[in-house]
Amino acid sequence: MKVLYWDIFAGISGDMALGSLIALGANPEKIIEQLHSIGLNEFRLDIRLRQVQGIQATDIDVVVLDNHEHKQNFSHNHEFANNHTHGHDHDHDHEHEHEHAHEHNHEHGHEYKNEYVQHDHTPVTHAHNRYLPDIQKMIMSGSLSERAQESALKVFNVLAEAEANVHGTTIDKVHFHEVGAVDSLVDIVGTCIALDQLDIEEIRVSTLPWSKGFVQCAHGTLPLPAPATLMLLRGFKFRDSGITGELITPTGAALMKALAQQTDFPEMIIHNVGYGSGKNDYGIPSLLRGVIGEI
């Protein structure tokens, strides 16, 4: 049985998950082609190799294109080069449900705010809201494999359930104006496509790092882990990390809740190891380590 073990010593987010799978051999060209097939065209995927405390990792940025770029460029940019720089900033008027706005300290000399999930994402020409049925229709409309479709639907379903629980509503009334954002859809659906490409039969995860602190959002000040994140991770085992700041995003939590089980490292033959890069600097390597092996 082919197993993916995510070693979550520094947390997990959608871009860290996708980055780790590309580092393990998932084909970004095919991922983008399948994302286009579900009507997700208004983005460019920037991928580069990055040194994080001496460890080479795959760093992902989802760049939301404006109308002119969208018409001019349906391709993506995935230069694996340490000197790669991004010609963008994330100026999309992010208003947050529970705001995941972090100052990311990239080594290529600029800082910007990049919200992984759960944010009001209103790019200039893509300001539309999505409910769960809208996202379900998108996922089912393209050329994704049955396994990738099922995985993506599971992730969004558990995310909707957590949001409904936190906000005291029902799943059919959950408004995906944040998770429906292009970058979050790319992270979640792209990860499910990559898992299918790598023929992963089972995902296991390590003990999770508990962090503390607060985040400012549209509702006021919320504690970390964010309420939806913590709702998703009921039943998971944590250890205190001693870190102030967000380590696990709702996207990362939903991926684990829907697709993974938590265990000690299994007895298996290791085939490959890959690292997905995060954007924070809390004094430890901001990395998600993916280990593929055979049980």
Description:
- This protein has 295 residues and is of the alpha/beta class.
- It has one domain.
- The protein has 8 helices and 15 strands.
- The strands form 6 sheets. It has a 5-stranded mixed β-sheet.
- Helix 4 runs antiparallel to helix 5 and helix 5 (146-167) crosses helix 8.
- It starts with a strand and ends with a strand.
- Residues 71-127 have low confidence and may be disordered.
- Keywords: Lyase, Nickel.
- Residues 81-109 are annotated as: Disordered.
Order of helices and strands: EHHEEHEEEEHHHEEEEHEHEEE
Tally of strands: 15
Residue stretches low in confidence (pLDDT < 50, at least 5 long) are 71-127
- Summarize the amount of helix as a percent range: 25-40%
The figure for the number of domains is: 1
- List the strand order in the largest sheet: 13-8-1-15-14
Radius of gyration: 18 Å
Strand content: 25-35%
What overall form do the CA principal axes indicate? globular
Report the end-to-end length measured between terminal Cα atoms: 5 Å
Give the biggest beta sheet. 5 strands, mixed
User: What would you call the quaternary organization?
Assistant: single chain
Number of helices: 8
Mean residue pLDDT: 82
Helix/strand structural class: alpha/beta
Protein name: TIGR00299 family protein
GO molecular function, one term: lyase activity
Pfam families: Ni_insertion (PF01969)
Keywords: Lyase, Nickel
